[in-house]
Amino acid sequence: MSSILGAGSQLSSGEIRFVTRRRALTMAIAAGLGASVVSLAAGVALGFHLPARDAAGLSNRVEHRLEHDYAIDQLGKLNATLAQIEPRIERLTSQVGSLRNFDARLNTPKALPRVPANGGNPADQDTADADGEGGPSLPPRPCVELNARPSRGDAASTQQQLDCMNATLSALEHETDLHEVALSAFPGRMPAEGARFGSPFGNRIDPFTHRLSFHPGVDLVATTGTPILAAAGGRVIFAGPKGGYGNAIEIDHGNGLITRYGHASRILVHEGELVLPQQHVADIGSTGRSTGPHLHFEVLVNGAPVDPTAYLALFGANPHG
């Protein structure tokens, strides 16, 4: 069980915690930044209502009005920037929450090593493809501390803090998007909605020979024409007749993970096509070596079949329901 779960996951629990710590940082930054904007607004309001000490005449009043209008304009720009940041924080919070929920269902954080196409060392391949990065390991610092000239009523200072926050959010969004890409390629989504679990993975009595045989997948029983859905995103590497599988589809999800869908009555995708999670790829049927309409669903790790229910359970499917 642990080897199966470890093979499919690129989302280690350590990585998820790395993201959530930064989410906490962004929320703290947002709170501090809001205080800066409020203080700036208060300074502008006070400057507008306090009477001028120098009654030198119209020129001073005109100059004061221009300064006030400039401050109001800057405040408007800051508010607009903050309004753009807030929904990004909400979206990031939602993404991290979903990833944390999924990560909590994983029993092992170990990821499947990538196998390079040239058969070389996976570690060497990763090093060759990655950009050079490094430096000391230091905790993140709030944007208010990174500002070289902090001032409670300085619009430029507040803008620097907003720019810092934008850059921080962009880094966090990029990291979270990488996790979501890995999640979309994890084959745990139910490939036939409303289907019931039939013959399980493992040794069973063959329905044709009535002798003990190995069943490399699970059977999901449903009526002919029920949509077959991709269990994860990936590339179609086979679509057509395949011996006892009848009309079959194979989807490569990367990192050695492949799903196979057999006995389809109709195939809707072609070899080489990219598919999304839960995309309608075929219809349930009874082609090939089959006693009735159902979907034969397999998960293969580095070419070896594993129990698909271990993956489906992570997305809430119940093989005993």
UniProtKB/TrEMBL annotation:
Transmembrane intervals: 25-50
Molecular function as annotated in GO: metalloendopeptidase activity
Family matches, as InterPro entries: Cell_wall_metabolism_enzyme, Dup_hybrid_motif, M23ase_b-sheet_dom
Domain M23ase beta-sheet core: 214-308
Annotated Pfam families: Peptidase_M23
Annotated region described as Disordered, given as residue ranges: 107-159
UniProt keyword list: Membrane, Signal, Transmembrane, Transmembrane helix
Entries under Gene3D superfamilies matching the protein: Glucose Permease (Domain IIA)
Protein name: Peptidase family M23
The organism of origin for this protein: Paraburkholderia phenazinium
